[in-house]
Design goal:
It is built from nine helices and ten strands. With about 290 residues, it is an alpha/beta fold. The protein folds into two domains: about 40-115 and about 195-280 and about 285-290, P-loop containing nucleotide triphosphate hydrolases (Rossmann fold); about 125-190, no CATH class. The strands form two sheets. Strands 6-7-8-3-9-10 form a six-stranded mixed beta sheet, with helices on both faces. A four-stranded antiparallel beta sheet has the order 2-1-4-5, with helices on one face. Helix 5 (about 150-160) crosses helix 6 (about 175-190). The protein is globular. The termini are far apart. It binds adenosine-5'-diphosphate and magnesium ion. Adenosine-5'-diphosphate binds near residues 53, 78, 85, 86 and 251.
Amino acid sequence: MTQATTTLRRSLAQAPVHNTPRRGVSQAHTATTGTGIGAPLLQVDGVSLEYRTPQHVVRATHQVGFDVHEAERFVLLGPSGCGKSTLLKAVAGFIAPVEGEIRLDGRRVTAPGPDRIVVFQEFDQLPPWKTVRENVMFPLLASRTLGRRQAAERALHYLDKVGLSRFAEAHPHQLSGGMKQRVAIARALAMQPRVLLMDEPFAALDALTRRKMQEELLALWEEVRFTLLFVTHSIEEALVVGSRIALLSPHPGRMRAEINSHGFDLGSTGSASFQATAQRIHGLLFDEDEEHT
Ligand SMILES: Nc1ncnc2c1ncn2[C@@H]1O[C@H](COP(=O)(O)OP(=O)(O)O)[C@@H](O)[C@H]1O
Ligand SMILES: [Mg+2]
């Protein structure tokens, strides 16, 4: 895929679909599109999230706040049960905050929309009766974003990017877990969302495939420069994938710290500074004594 990535870079440079300023975007934001400075693209502002069952109320996150700028790779990192998935669902618009607000391009998020697409961990996110190409086309057609012919073209374009052109007419059951996740990523990117939301997308893959997928995701980001909000409970994955990391405390999730990780990639996992940062994060996540820092 790296080769395909290189050859596609030129054609993409001519059509930087993800960095096109939208209507209603503030002047300051437009002027700094893609640079990571200026008004944040996504604002999560003092957000508390709860589940209500007939018996009790479960608080999943407590007053969580962070900003994500255009073209950032922002990671939510925290132990299982700290509310990462719930936060992602709230950003997607499936759950409303009981306190605080989520804003995209300055507008409050109140419902799901094609500007926020989620890639989940599960391999069964693809309807099995549709071909790979039809799977990628489906949201484009269902949301009336494109007509059939254009949707097919765009589907093939993004399938090429994830190295699956040859499998366009295959069905999901003919693919490996990693390939299914590539289709899910192509399907999400084809919608050209403002933010790509990923909930532990590689957690169910074997270690080697997971590493490969991380590498491919970074190569894809280099090429497309989409804005990513990525959830993981793996410290190493957070450091490799993210440019910035929000650390969440155990249940209910609160903001623990923000870590700058843009200097790390797959090549730096063995380095002393990578290991030191991983240790520091481990301490912040699991050291009860630092609860109030
Ligand atoms: N549908 C639900 N009903 C009630 N409680 C839930 C539901 N989904 C998640 N929770 C609870 O909310 C908390 C956060 O869950 P979740 O966001 O899935 O955490 P994470 O993704 O970080 O593992 C957990 O304590 C979990 O048990
Ligand atoms: Mg989760």
